[in-house]
């Protein structure tokens, strides 16, 4: 039978007999759930704890943002919960961070327990009769459901802010959940009083002044005791074994710690106030209330004062913990999972990062494929019209796994959804409609794009038939019920759309939250990314909804989608009925403006925002006439770039001058705009992102166009448009990546400086099509030497630019008189204005683009001086370029050869597994390494000869297997680089560096030893076969006691002709060992001891390594900016964090959106939690305010000339999104 209360769901009168995982086809859905979506129980718990349970009243909860609670940590409250398996069940909790209260109630029909969902056994794909976990859907309160909240104690009931009910969607499962959330019982102002130590110290000072003798023994430590004292009062009040004690208001501690300002707390608990005579003198007291009796084994009823006191006492304990107390409390996480019957379920051991696809299906990344497929089935059964959305999400999750079976099943589902008849399914039509298709030479099965394209061509080639074509097009539109086709001739994308049509277009409901609407819009666009017409209609629908809701998030999504898809802005078309620009309704003028993404330019936007803050570069731009390179042929001939002294062509100099002009315009717009963001010019993007050869090719094609038009049609040369961007490869590391070269022939002294010659290629380079720099193999170094680059062609001078390759079977085209009269600047400018980029594929690496900007700018400025080795210096070289020295010792060679290089960045390498510090990453670039080659070993290490004021560090995330290394590199706010500086080999600093190499080598050896017998018993026995730990043994006379693990191989490496001894580091205290005969496999306790010793030695060496350079802090650099990259090697997204030192805040520039975070610790915690940081920018600490500055917008003026200042908030709050 069902429990006496009416909370449980009752069986319907026609319920079939109960069976375990019933046989036969189950009822499809419960009628009252049709059209809804849900989530599996673990996802429901996740969303509850992360405040993402976006249904009903939960959406309107105004959380206490000051509490900083990103995830609720729940602990049980008092005696208010039932046993985990009780029916009905109750779990009453409080969040230890924000003090909000959560009550979760569950119930089911006890007569149908066997119909409850169960996670095991599971199959893939799930059977029709398998129901693994509860799929919880929001429902209205059933009529017979008892309203518990109406009987709550008044103090609890008035704190209640949200109550929602959920039920499992499985056809015969009767499981139901109710979640209640209420505000803290301790008001915010009370909490401030309790933790205000200055207030308590002030009370104590006043008391000592008024009654010095009485308060002589009062202690200053009382200032931090208010939470614990209140907790003691409440705990005594709840204890049934003790009688509640009266509280004298004159009690010294009570008077000081609480005082009159805290009386409201005790009155809220219903303490009464009386005067009681003491020695004939009346004294004011707080008299405790009489609480309801506590019944062992029975939860406290929430309609009692006892429940309210339990709530307050739980909050007091949280307050103690948050203020440094050592209260031990058990979290309620496991109990919640038990309550929702999902403690154990099949998990995926290789969980992927959470995505929108997981949210759409209501699953978590650690679900195994059977559960994910089951969730897809449940979602689709409830909402058939959104099945395609769910199938897309299923495919997206499956594609992130290596499971081919999962991927096949997901694709089959998507294919099956695509073949289902839809509401606008159409046949061949009648005779008249068939004539309409024939008019355009189409079949009735033609796609929408084909129909519209055929119409456009018909009108273009036969203008006299435009009216007839329009009628035929509208006839096809009516036949298909396709508004886009029907309205195309009248400008369908720009006609007004009402709100109902917008929701219909997106297949969403008006009550859906913004995030879901935006997500569905992106899914519809990604389903057919080539259909620009459908994409425009979809974005317009999102815009209509955004305006109706006045949602800034949706408006920003509209603007981002238009930029990413290169769609025209609404209001830019003739006949448009709206002036919406997609900009947020209001722009904060106290933060910098963003930059619009104009087609896969997030990497460029991030760089531009960063370079805008580098003062020497902005000074160079604003004072460009003082630095401009002369345009005479001799000036250009004499200009040499970088450490490899690359020559400059006049085309490159012209591109650089135009880039300077565009950058100045951009900086001015950013300084003066009153909008949230501005749009960079396409000419700026082209000047940076297109290769010189491509720009020249475009200018040649434009100059030859007139001659080609006069040729015979059969011999006419077709101009096919722009080739994909082919940019020079990114600058390489100063030596090979830390992997052994394949043979010694490739390990030789080479010029490692970046080559800036543009390769001429007919297809996109492999570098340009990736979003991260690829790591070169050691054997690939010479491929980047100009002389050895077989696929390079010389860049022609302007006089020869129009002459095609004589080897091609085409007539030589000579420029006409008009084109010969054009200057180089005019030709280049024209090419930059007309050239097109393929925004869908040409996403480039941020290091590559940074190199392009630097090279372009260098090509347009003159040198200021020349170094002793002939390197031309100017402000960019002096600001950004680091001079490094590679030391290399070849086989059978005495001493080291050196080779200098100048780069605008240095490399850091993540660990192969797990996180590492920034110094560990840099050590993989600079430390001593050995490479095996023919004839012996090659030794090499790198040092820094000269550091620039602004230092760039690139984290090389491209692995040898072509995948991205996502292991975190822990970025530090301060970075001391003394250890990497080039010093004499006999200097103390170099000796410390040698010692560090030895420690690093030993740590690598220790890291290679298996930690458990499961990893490699054979290798482990190698280290234990000769020794057994014996604490009472001692070595034989004359024998030493070496470390069990400290046996690094000797090295013959020499510096300046002297042998180097890489020291052996032995722990100060060693156990003794005696040689014995071991059994075939080491005993488990022996292996455990070895693991323990290894761990201890690792800690010792790490501590010694950390202390080695702790006093060397002359080369101090502070973190200024971090460019981040999410995604894989072939696609992804960039954004940048920049520290405003003057205001001590961080700005996150994410294309159009700029947000603020005040806490450096929070930013570093975010950066160090994943593998997103990619390009680090440090500045000399002592000169940071002179080197970098985040410009502020210029204040606007009204018509009377008064300065109009933006409405600045009280503080830069936590706008940032992660």
TrEMBL record:
It comes from the Eukaryota. One of its GO terms (molecular function) is cysteine-type deubiquitinase activity. Residues 706-715, 779-792 have a biased composition (Basic and acidic residues). InterPro entries: Papain-like_cys_pep_sf (IPR038765), Peptidase_C19_UCH (IPR001394), UBP14-like (IPR044635), UCH_repeat_domain (IPR025305), USP (IPR028889), USP_CS (IPR018200). It is an enzyme of class 3 (hydrolase). Its EC number is 3.4.19.12. Residues 726-741 have a biased composition (Pro residues). Coiled coil: none annotated. Residues 757-774, 1040-1054 have a biased composition (Low complexity). This is ubiquitinyl hydrolase 1. It comes from Colletotrichum karsti.
């Amino acid at each position: 039978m069902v429990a006496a209360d009416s909370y449980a769901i009752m069986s319907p009168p026609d319920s079939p007999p109960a069976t375990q995982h019933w046989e036969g086809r189950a009822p499809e859905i419960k009628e009252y759930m049709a059209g809804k979506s849900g989530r599996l129980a673990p996802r429901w718990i996740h969303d509850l704890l992360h405040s993402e349970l976006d249904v009903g009243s939960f959406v309107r909860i105004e959380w206490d943002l000051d509490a900083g609670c990103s995830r609720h940590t729940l602990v049980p409250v008092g005696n208010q919960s039932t046993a985990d398996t009780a029916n009905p069940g109750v779990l009453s909790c409080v969040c230890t961070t924000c003090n909000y209260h959560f009550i979760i109630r569950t119930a089911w029909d006890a007569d149908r327990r066997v119909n409850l969902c169960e996670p095991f056994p599971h199959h893939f794909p799930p059977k029709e009769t398998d129901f693994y976990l509860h799929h919880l859907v929001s429902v209205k309160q059933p009529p017979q459901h008892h309203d518990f909240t109406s009987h709550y104690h008044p103090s609890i009931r008035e704190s209640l802010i949200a109550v929602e009910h959920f039920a499992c969607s499985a056809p015969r499962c009767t499981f139901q959940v109710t979640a209640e959330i209420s505000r803290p019982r301790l008001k915010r102002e009370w909490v401030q009083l309790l933790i205000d130590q200055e207030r308590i110290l002030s009370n104590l000072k006043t008391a000592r002044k008024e009654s010095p003798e009485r308060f002589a023994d009062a202690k200053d430590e009382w200032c931090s005791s208010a939470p614990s004292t209140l907790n003691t009062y409440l705990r005594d009040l709840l204890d049934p074994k003790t009688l509640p004690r009266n509280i004298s208001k004159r009690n010294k501690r009570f008077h000081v710690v609480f005082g009159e300002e805290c009386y409201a707390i005790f009155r809220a608990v219903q303490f009464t106030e009386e005067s009681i005579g003491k020695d004939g003198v009346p004294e004011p007291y707080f008299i405790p209330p009489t609480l309801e009796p506590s019944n062992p084994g029975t939860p406290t009823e929430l309609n009692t004062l006892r429940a309210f006191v339990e709530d307050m006492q739980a909050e007091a304990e949280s307050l103690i913990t948050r203020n440094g107390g050592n209260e031990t409390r058990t979290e309620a996480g496991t109990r919640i999972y038990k309550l929702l019957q999902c403690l154990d379920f099949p998990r995926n051991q290789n969980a992927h990062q959470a995505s929108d696809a997981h949210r759409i299906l209501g699953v978590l990344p650690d679900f195994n494929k059977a559960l994910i497929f089951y969730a897809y089935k449940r979602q689709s059964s409830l909402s058939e019209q959104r099945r395609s959305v769910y199938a897309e999400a299923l495919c997206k999750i499956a594609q992130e796994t290596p499971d081919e079976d999962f991927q096949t099943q997901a694709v089959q589902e998507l294919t099956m959804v695509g073949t289902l008849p839809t509401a606008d399914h159409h046949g061949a039509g009648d005779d008249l409609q068939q004539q309409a298709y024939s008019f355009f030479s189409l079949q009735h099965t033609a796609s929408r794009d084909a129909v519209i394209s055929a119409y456009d061509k018909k009108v273009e080639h036969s203008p006299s038939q435009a009216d007839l074509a329009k009628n035929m097009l509208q006839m096809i539109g009516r036949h298909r019920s396709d508004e886009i086709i029907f309205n195309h001739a009248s400008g369908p994308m720009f006609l007004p759309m009402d709100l109902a049509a917008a929701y219909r277009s997106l297949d969403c409901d008006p009550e859906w939250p913004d995030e879901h609407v935006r997500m569905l819009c992106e899914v519809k666009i990604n389903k057919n990314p080539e259909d620009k017409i459908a994409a425009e209609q979809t974005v317009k629908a999102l815009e209509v909804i955004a305006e109706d809701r006045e949602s800034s998030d949706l408006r920003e999504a509209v603007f981002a989608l238009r930029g990413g898809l290169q769609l025209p802005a609404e209001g830019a078309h003739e006949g448009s009925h709206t002036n919406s620009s997609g900009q947020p309704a209001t722009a904060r003028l106290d933060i910098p403006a963003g930059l619009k993404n104009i087609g896969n330019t997030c990497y460029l936007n991030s760089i531009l925002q960063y370079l805008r803050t580098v003062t020497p570069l902005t000074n160079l731009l604003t004072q460009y006439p003082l630095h401009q390179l002369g345009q005479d042929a001799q000036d250009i001939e004499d200009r040499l770039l970088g450490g490899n002294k690359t020559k400059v062509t006049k085309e490159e100099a012209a591109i650089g001058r135009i880039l300077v002009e565009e950058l100045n315009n951009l900086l001015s717009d950013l300084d003066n705009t009153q909008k949230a963001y501005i749009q960079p010019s396409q000419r700026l993007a082209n000047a940076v992102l297109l290769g010189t050869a491509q720009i020249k090719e475009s200018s040649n094609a434009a100059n030859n166009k007139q001659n080609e038009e006069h040729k015979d049609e059969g011999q006419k040369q077709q101009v096919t448009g722009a080739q994909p961007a082919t940019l020079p490869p990114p600058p390489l590391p100063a030596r090979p990546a830390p992997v052994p070269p394949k043979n010694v022939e490739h390990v030789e002294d080479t010029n490692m400086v970046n080559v800036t010659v543009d390769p001429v290629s007919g297809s996109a380079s492999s570098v340009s099509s990736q979003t991260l720099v690829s790591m070169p193999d050691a054997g690939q170094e010479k491929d980047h030497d100009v002389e050895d680059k077989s696929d390079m062609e010389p860049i022609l001078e302007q006089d020869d630019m129009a002459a095609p390759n004589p080897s091609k079977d085409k007539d030589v085209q000579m420029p006409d008189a008009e084109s010969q009269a054009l200057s180089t600047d005019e030709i280049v400018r024209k090419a930059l204005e007309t050239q097109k980029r393929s925004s869908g594929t040409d996403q480039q690496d941020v290091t590559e683009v940074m190199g392009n900007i630097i090279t372009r700018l260098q090509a347009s400025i003159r040198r200021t001086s020349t170094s002793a080795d002939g390197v031309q210096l100017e402000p960019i070289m002096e600001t950004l370029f680091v001079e490094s020295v590679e030391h290399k010792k070849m086989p059978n060679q005495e001493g080291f050869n050196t080779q200098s290089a100048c780069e605008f960045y240095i490399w850091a390498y993540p660990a192969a597994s797990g996180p590492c510090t920034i110094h560990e990453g840099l050590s993989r670039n600079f430390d001593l390494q050995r490479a095996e080659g023919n004839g012996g070993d090659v030794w090499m290490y790198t040092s820094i000869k000269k550091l620039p004021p602004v230092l760039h560090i690139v984290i090389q995330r491209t692995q040898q297997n072509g995948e991205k290394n996502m292991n975190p590199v822990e970025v530090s706010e301060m970075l001391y680089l003394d250890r990497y500086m080039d010093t004499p080999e006999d200097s103390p600093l170099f000796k410390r560096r040698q010692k560090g190499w030895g420690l690093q080598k030993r740590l690598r050896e220790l890291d290679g030893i298996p930690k458990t017998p499961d990893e490699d018993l054979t290798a482990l026995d190698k280290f234990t076969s000769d020794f057994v730990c014996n604490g009472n043994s001692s070595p034989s006379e004359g024998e030493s006691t070496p470390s069990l693990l400290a046996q690094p191989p000797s090295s013959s490496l020499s510096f300046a002709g002297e042998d180097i001894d890489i020291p052996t580091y032995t722990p100060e205290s060693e156990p003794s060992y005696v040689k014995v005969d071991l059994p075939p496999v080491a005993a488990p306790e022996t292996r455990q001891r070895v693991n323990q010793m290894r761990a201890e030695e690792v800690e010792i060496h790490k501590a010694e390594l950390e202390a080695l350079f702790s006093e060397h802090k002359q080369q101090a650099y502070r973190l200024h900016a971090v460019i981040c990259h999410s995604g894989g090697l072939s696609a992804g997204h960039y954004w940048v964090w920049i520290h405003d030192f003057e205001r001590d805040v961080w700005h996150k520039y994410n294309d159009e959106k700029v947000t603020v975070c005040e806490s450096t610790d929070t930013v570093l915690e975010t950066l160090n939690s994943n593998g997103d940081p990619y390009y680090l920018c440090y500045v000399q600490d002592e000169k940071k305010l002179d080197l970098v500055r985040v410009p502020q917008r210029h204040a606007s003026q009204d018509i009377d000339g008064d300065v109009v200042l933006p409405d600045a908030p009280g503080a830069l709050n936590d706008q940032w999104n992660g």
